[in-house]
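Design a sequence for this backbone.
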């Protein structure tokens, strides 16, 4: 939540900042702002709403300058208005700050600062932090970097910050704890700073990911100076960025979400690349090799995640229990961390996160780690906090996902979970060699099947037009497709704001059936290999109450076709891999409905892609 970007060098800062903010807008879009130093003055502009609002605001303003900071906000403390927008000034307006994170003890710090004469304009925790830094500087007369270090020592919470000082237009000060921050080093030691590498990738490939509690002093033409909060010097670890610029652009699609849906044949392939050897009959996940024994011997696997990643975790539970016979529990990270869970050293925790930054998932991992469990990560973003906090893990390699509603990340997570389950089951001997090989073949064929099913998009669009004005939707599935029903419902409510619920098909009769009438579209996943006959009975129950059935069926289906109002056909696949196919028409359905309702599918209201607050 919240995206930060900064630049220092010989170029004009504003174009770099504004482009960066647009790339980071997926992290929050309640307000945005920039502050740029020109001729010894800070010119600060901020505006409620999207980055385009900020662009209109500055159209006739002085935005000259080669050092500046920018911010796009997802509101935590204070309304999303102009005043609470970042950047924030210090009291004397000598300093300006951008911040992603939450200062938890801001109220008590604010009280102390008020007693010392500080006056605040906004309701934000961020303004308190910059006043605290100013206060330390005034009291101790130390250089700014030292004041930042001392002030951060008093802070409880999470932060990625960048500060500029109007009297020192050659230096940016950046620091982080729990929120991500990456520094790009351009030619002649110009610097780019951002929440992720997307604003940086077109300028330089040399980056440094700051570690928690590190403070960087970036001075034009000089090497990075790095310290931690305990005042120990650190050596920056410069690494090469692997991200491709094309991956973060729309490439001719109307929305990122659609592009990402259509990328799935490739993203699923990328999740498997180099990990399956069909000839030798081997799955090898290099990242977890040293921990596979531990996984095989685990008394229990606990999967922690949030949102769509939690749904992938549910599929993982079915896969892992089915194939490895190890008991699996799936927990919302936010519940797990606060409910005093029983965790032992023989437990393996799998944390699933697209961004690798979700605060609750990160905290759940830390808790489980403290209690001695082995932590395995499944993340998409390379170098993210969760990937660094885990003992081992497998990246999904889905490529950057920009649309706030997760699509390709889900299928890639399920692919990696499938590989993990197959690998452990094979090594443990809980599936036969022939079944293992057959499943490997089946998994390898999924990308082609996804390619094929995407051709049914026209049909999905047609159905979407018929139901775009519905006020409620019900999604039903059984077994492996129960989590897909949950995910389908989540996609619809996230981006089209239609109320939708996902249920195990058999549970319908214990409540949701009361809602069914001729106004209620019911999406049912009725694939041949997944309790088909039982699902057919559930469809009959809906029909008997005049509900409208949209069914996901296999090509060549006869029975459901005869009773459903609409069908979407997908290729047949082994039941345990069916979520990799069945989830996709549901993504398309929600996409088209949202577009037809005029919703902003890539940036739905109130949501953010990377949830770095609890
Ligand atoms: C947010 C996003 C969801 C995502 C969830 C978990 O709510 O909007 O799309 O599933 O966070 O994020 P993670 O990055 O941990 O997978």
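Sequence:
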């Amino acid at each position: 939540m919240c995206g930060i970007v900064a630049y220092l060098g010989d170029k004009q800062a504003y174009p770099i900042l504004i482009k960066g903010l647009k790339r980071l807008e997926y992290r929050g879009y309640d307000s945005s702002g920039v502050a740029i130093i020109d001729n010894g003055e800070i010119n600060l502009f901020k505006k409620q709403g999207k980055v385009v609002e900020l662009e209109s605001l500055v159209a006739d303003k002085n935005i000259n300058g080669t050092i500046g900071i920018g911010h796009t906000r997802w509101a935590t403390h204070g309304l999303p208005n102009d005043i609470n927008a970042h950047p924030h000034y210090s009291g004397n307006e000598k300093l300006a700050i951008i911040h992603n994170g939450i200062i938890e003890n801001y109220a008590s710090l604010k009280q102390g600062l008020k007693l010392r004469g500080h006056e605040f304009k906004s309701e934000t925790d961020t303004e308190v932090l910059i006043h605290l830094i100013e206060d330390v500087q005034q009291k101790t007369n130390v250089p700014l970097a030292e004041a930042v270090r001392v002030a951060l020592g008093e802070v409880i919470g999470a932060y990625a910050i960048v500060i500029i000082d109007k009297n020192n237009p050659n230096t940016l000060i950046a620091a982080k704890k729990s929120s991500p921050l990456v520094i790009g080093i351009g030619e002649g030691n110009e610097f780019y700073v951002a929440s992720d590498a997307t604003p940086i990738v077109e300028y330089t490939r040399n980056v440094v990911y700051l570690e928690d509690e590190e403070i960087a002093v970036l001075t034009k033409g000089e090497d990075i100076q790095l310290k931690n909060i305990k005042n120990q010097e650190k050596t920056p670890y410069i690494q090469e960025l692997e991200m491709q610029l094309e991956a973060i652009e729309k490439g001719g699609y109307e929305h990122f979400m659609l592009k990402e849906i259509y990328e799935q044949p490739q993203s699923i392939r990328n999740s498997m690349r180099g990990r399956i050897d069909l000839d030798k009959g081997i799955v090898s996940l290099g990242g977890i090799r040293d921990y596979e024994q531990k996984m095989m011997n685990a008394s229990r696997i606990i999967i922690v995640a949030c949102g769509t990643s939690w749904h992938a975790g549910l599929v993982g539970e079915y896969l892992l229990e089915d194939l490895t016979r190890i008991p699996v529990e799936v927990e919302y990270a936010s519940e797990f961390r606060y409910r005093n869970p029983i965790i032992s050293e023989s437990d393996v925790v799998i944390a699933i996160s697209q961004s690798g930054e979700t605060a609750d998932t990160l905290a759940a991992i830390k808790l489980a780690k403290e209690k001695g469990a082995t932590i395995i990560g499944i993340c998409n973003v390379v170098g993210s906090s969760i990937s660094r906090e885990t003992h081992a893990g497998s990246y999904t390699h889905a490529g950057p996902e920009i649309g706030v509603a997760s699509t390709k990340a889900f299928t890639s997570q399920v692919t990696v979970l499938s590989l993990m389950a197959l690998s452990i089951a094979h090594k443990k001997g809980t599936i036969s060699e022939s079944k293992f090989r057959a499943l490997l073949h089946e998994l390898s064929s999924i990308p082609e099947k996804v390619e094929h099913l995407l051709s049914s998009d026209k049909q999905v669009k047609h159905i979407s037009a018929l139901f775009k004005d519905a006020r409620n939707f019900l999604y039903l599935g059984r077994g492996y497709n129960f989590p897909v029903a949950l995910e389908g419902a989540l996609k619809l409510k996230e981006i089209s704001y239609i109320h939708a619920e996902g249920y195990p098909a058999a549970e319908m009769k214990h409540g949701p059936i009361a809602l069914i009438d001729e106004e209620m579209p019911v999406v049912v996943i009725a694939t041949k290999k997944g309790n088909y006959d039982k699902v057919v009975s559930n469809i009959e129950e809906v029909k008997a109450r005049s509900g409208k059935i949209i069914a996901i069926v296999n090509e060549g289906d006869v029975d459901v076709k005869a009773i459903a109002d609409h069908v979407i056909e997908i290729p047949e696949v082994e039941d345990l891999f069916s979520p990799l196919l069945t989830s996709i028409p549901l993504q398309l359905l929600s996409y088209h409905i949202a577009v037809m309702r005029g919703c902003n599918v890539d940036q739905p209201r109130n949501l953010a892609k990377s949830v770095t607050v609890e």
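Residues 113 and 132 are 7 Å apart (CA to CA).
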